[in-house]
């Protein structure tokens, strides 16, 4: 994914654009660029690398244009270099655009334009779109028409902004499949992929819908469909505050977000627990109670960390409600021919609400007639808007590319959903009360784990030079093993694999030697003894054992090299606690290796392309 931002107003555009890019840099950081308009001339500056590289090329004190667009890129078509960086212009440099998404039929359009004599400088699909709009503008002399015409011809996705040398008082914004919102300030407008770039200037926004364009002028804005039908856009309020997207004294966003979890978990269950009834109240699902009661199967679909949360959700729902649950990678779900029956519920989980594969799975499920629910963090995001009903996780903006607080909030919401289905089916009031009461204790228990942060940092230092890690867990903690391995590889670039502990002897055991750290989740539950046997197997092969264990377990110290304790809780809620040491272990390992923790190489916060 990429981040785009545009400004039209009374202040210096360059300042606001650079600031907006910095706030959205987590969306992509391969290259950045900006175009401003002065006296009928578009001035474009772009550079490979982070936004700071671009900033070095711009003398903000000399910039006085009040209109411009900018982009931070996560490369899809063409290498990250200066030429492929956005903005991209038409041949006459009359029209320039920034774009987030993919133009799938760009090769065919490029071929046609080349036959007509147009030339291209970059390898990008975006330049083809810019030249195409430019060609149509040359022909029809109407910018809005040229944009709508071009967009009706392209396949693929776009969130885009258009700046024209002939229109110093106009920006055009358009969206299909990639997020775009317009902040409405006092005589100024900030359009962006992300509320983070807007919130400093205004909290009033409109979210563009798919196939909608906005013509923004100094006097106001006008929205319509690409096929030229007027639309009405509701003004909404951004729900978070500026300080939530700042580091607040932490060295990295990831660390800040890890330490926010006691609060974010509370936000996920606040007002939703009916403790005395052993039940929950989920306002976002109220209108589909009938479908929920008749659910015969639940299919959870998601990607990455959200998929790991889905696996825990499967165990929770089957355990409490006795309803069969399947968990599918969204990318697989969308390309198979999944069997969906009348009483199936599809549950899509996504932090960003913009992941292309998850969105496509949602569309597929809807198309097949399923009731589709969302567990989404970003309010107003595509998945949140497209699903029939849902539950927001309320974790606040997650900026660190490695997902942390979003995961534990998803687990919290999944536990609420499991209680809900449970109470509709087999869960007793007594059991419901027990789980609800224990959920209330979770934030304090996480604070207790933070007391081990220094110890975890020491363990990280000890093992940071390892080339491979193995993460093992069973039952509710198997998905946590997967999540622990993902966190480590994402930000420290150390190869790590997660497995169900018992699977180790079916293959991975061959990897174990004295150089291999093996991380076990060995909390006290009915499979504790089995895990201890797995640990013994690793010990016999000289592997280095790091164990996550329940407070008070002294036996584990005789078999493990390092032990990190977590407070006791119900087995179904253990993942919310056991993942915390893994987040910290990954963080401190990456810190030790001097990696760019918030912006790990090759990654972007949400993957809005296939
Ligand atoms: O925004 P989503 O939850 O849909 O994102 C899904 C994955 O792309 C995401 O969880 C990814 O795996 C993270 N980088 C994990 O830390």
**Hetero compounds:** 5-amino-5-deoxy-1-O-phosphono-D-mannitol
Nearest-integer average pLDDT: 94
Q: Which descriptor suits the 3D outline? A: globular
CATH level-4 homologous superfamily of the largest domain = Aminohydrolase, N-terminal nucleophile (Ntn) domain
Largest sheet: 8 strands, antiparallel
Percent of residues in β-strands? 15-25%
Strand numbers in spatial order across the main sheet: 3-2-4-1-10-9-11-14
What portion of residues is helical?
Answer: 25-40%
How is the topology of this model organized?
Layout: E1 3-8, H1 13-23, E2 31-38, E3 41-48, H2 51-57, E4 67-73, E5 88-89, E6 95-100, H3 106-115, H4 125-140, H5 143-153, E7 158-164, E8 170-176, E9 181-184, E10 189-192, E11 204-207, E12 212-217, E13 220-225, E14 236-237, H6 253-259, H7 261-269, E15 273-274, E16 279-280, H8 289-293, E17 297-302, H9 304-321, E18 325-329, H10 330-333, E19 344-350, H11 356-367, E20 371-376, H12 382-386, E21 389-392, H13 405-424, H14 429-450, H15 453-463, E22 468-473, H16 478-492, E23 495-500, E24 517-522, H17 528-539, E25 544-550, E26 562-566, H18 574-592
The chain binds 5-amino-5-deoxy-1-O-phosphono-D-mannitol.
Describe the overall structure.
The chain has 610 residues and is an alpha/beta fold. The protein folds into 3 domains: 3-238, 4-Layer Sandwich (Glutamine Phosphoribosylpyrophosphate, subunit 1, domain 1), CATH 3.60.20; 243-448, Glucose-6-phosphate isomerase like protein, domain 1 (Rossmann fold, 3-Layer(aba) Sandwich); 451-600, Rossmann fold (3-Layer(aba) Sandwich). The longest helix is centred in the C-terminal third of the chain and has 22 residues, at 429-450. The structure holds 5-amino-5-deoxy-1-O-phosphono-D-mannitol. 5-amino-5-deoxy-1-O-phosphono-D-mannitol is lined by residues 303-306, 350-352, 355, 358, 401-403, 490, 606-607.
